[in-house]
Specification:
Layout: H1 37-59, H2 65-71, H3 75-107, H4 111-126, H5 129-137, H6 139-142, E1 145-149, E2 155-160, H7 161-164, H8 167-192, H9 196-204, H10 209-239, H11 251-262, H12 265-294, H13 306-324
């Protein structure tokens, strides 16, 4: 006798009744987004810290924003910024020219040139910049006159060293010689990054050695040189503040003179900080576009400009907002006609 508790086998569904759910059917699964709790906590903590710092900038009277507004575009500060830019430009151009010569001397097969270049780089990277600047500032104590003549022989023409090398000249010489030691290694690393087969192919075509370097090696090496060179130039811009020991009227020196007279240390330091931030930002933008230009031969699609990146970011936000309000379409397996 059959038990009354036995369940009858499932029969065909009644017409018009919904089909029973299939186990593990993707359409019946509940999609739960990933919960990044730690990320949200970290983001909230950062937002709180940024808001607290911004509130302190706006409300702390020690910043003295009215003093900042009075001096940030004053004639004295603008002239000091111009002196800073001049020192940076002179040291950059002359330093990289001398550094390029030193780099190829190190790559030369001549042991004399290699030794001289290596010794120069070793010495000038070992001595702090401030020591070099003070040394060149006191060059007249070591050589009171500079002249031209036969080596170890008579001198045909000489002049007082102070009349040739002034304060600005000593600063440019010190910054240039210091920068050349680092520029030499930057250029040498970029040249070594170029495939040796490029030079072999150029030599097989009979291209002169100088033209190989100028038209083949350096354009390809620039892709490896530019990122490090850009950082070095930005560091040089900030490093010009060291010449305050020579009483040159650059940005940091003028800021020191002003707050030495009026005692407004914090707002005047903020003036110098703001100008350094603006100048380094402009150099970073210039570096980006120069790198983009030299990437044309290697990348079929050069990196997008800043404007294109901004437009792409706006489109991404719009697309994400549109997808957030779009209804979710349930997934149907292939062949399912329900």
């Amino acid at each position: 006798m059959a038990s009354t508790t036995d369940t009858a086998p499932p029969g065909p569904a009644a017409p018009g009744a919904p089909a029973p759910p299939v186990p593990d059917d993707p359409a019946t699964l509940k999609v739960v987004p990933a919960r990044h709790y730690a990320r949200w906590v970290a983001a909230a903590a950062v937002v709180v810290l940024v808001a607290q710092f911004t509130h302190g900038l706006a409300t702390n009277p020690v910043w003295e924003w009215h003093v900042f507004r009075d001096y940030v575009l004053s004639e004295t500060i603008v002239q000091a910024v111009w002196v800073t830019l001049q020192l940076t430009a002179y040291a950059t151009v002359l330093g990289f020219l001398l550094g390029t010569v030193l780099a190829f001397m190190r790559l030369s097969r001549s042991p004399v040139l290699q030794t001289v270049a290596w010794t120069y780089i070793w010495i000038f990277r070992s001595i702090p910049m401030i020591v070099q600047l003070v040394f060149w500032f006191n060059l007249s104590a070591l050589y009171d006159r500079l002249g031209l003549g036969i080596p170890f022989g008579p001198v045909f023409w000489s002049v007082d060293s102070n009349s040739i090398i002034g304060t600005i000249g000593a600063a440019v010489i010190g910054l240039t010689l210091h920068q050349a030691a680092y520029a030499a290694e930057i250029v040498r690393g970029g040249v070594l990054a170029v495939d040796e087969g490029q030079l072999q192919a150029a030599a097989a075509l009979g291209i002169p050695r100088l033209r190989q370097i100028r038209r083949i090696v350096l354009p390809q090496a620039m892709r490896a040189i530019l990122p490090t060179a850009g950082n070095e130039i930005i560091g040089l811009l900030k490093g010009t503040s060291v010449v305050y020991v020579m009483s040159i009227g650059e940005l940091f020196y003028q800021v020191q003179v002003i707050y030495g007279r009026n005692g407004r240390v914090i707002p005047l330091l903020l003036v110098a900080t703001a100008w350094y931030v603006v100048l380094t930002s402009l150099l970073s933008v210039a570096q980006y576009y120069v790198e983009r230009r030299y990437a044309r031969g290697a990348d079929r699609t050069p990196p997008p400009t800043l404007l294109r990146r901004a437009r792409r970011f706006v489109r991404t936000l719009r697309t994400a907002a549109a997808q957030r309000h779009r209804p979710v379409v349930p997934f149907k397996p292939l062949g399912d006609t329900r």
